[in-house]
Write a structure and sequence with these properties.
This protein has about 170 residues and is an alpha/beta fold. It has three helices and ten strands.
């Protein structure tokens, strides 16, 4: 997807862990409001159920990767995604491995990516890695685990540049 001269608002999520049978587990309202304004949604794995993918697609086009808990989505979701959005190359994978060596490992695996989006740890991260590659983990909007807050990410991309990048903390449930 390329829209080089137009600003693209991307909502980035991961580790939602919402199964189709889980009627009590839904996306937080504050995240739903952000999804309404999104031009594109990236989900970095552990979607768990196809129902959530269908729900997300009602907001904006979705690119998602297979997570270690996505047993029902094997053969549906790819393990990695490499796309260009507004002239910015983005790679996405669920598990980026141990934090030690992550910068060099992601640069070797996705040498052309300006941003590598990943999940798995439920710990948000937004930092510069090797060769100025941005490493972006949105955390989880539903299961904070060891993180101080439930979170998601926002990117604004235009003209081949990352115009805005942020991790957004959701209100306490």
């Amino acid at each position: 997807m390329t829209r080089d001269n137009v600003s693209v608002r991307v909502v980035v999520i991961a580790d939602t862990h919402i199964s189709d049978a889980s009627a009590t587990s839904r996306l937080p309202e504050a995240l739903s409001a952000a999804l309404c304004r999104a031009d594109l949604i990236l989900h970095a794995g552990d979607v768990v159920g196809a129902e959530l993918l269908a729900e997300l697609a009602t907001y904006a086009p979705v690119h998602a990767v297979l997570g270690n808990n996505d047993h029902a989505l094997v053969g549906v979701l790819p393990r990695t995604v490499e796309i260009e959005i507004a002239g910015v190359s983005i790679a996405m994978v669920h598990d980026s491995g141990a934090s030690d060596g992550r910068e060099a490992r992601m640069q070797r695996r996705f040498p052309d990516a300006a941003i590598v989006v990943y999940g798995h740890s439920h710990l948000p991260e937004d930092r510069i890695g090797a060769d100025r590659q941005r490493l972006f983990n949105p955390g989880s909007p539903t299961q904070r685990r060891r993180a101080p807050h439930r979170t998601y990410g926002r990117l604004n991309l235009a003209g081949g540049r990352i115009r805005r990048h942020e991790i957004v903390a959701l209100p306490s449930a």
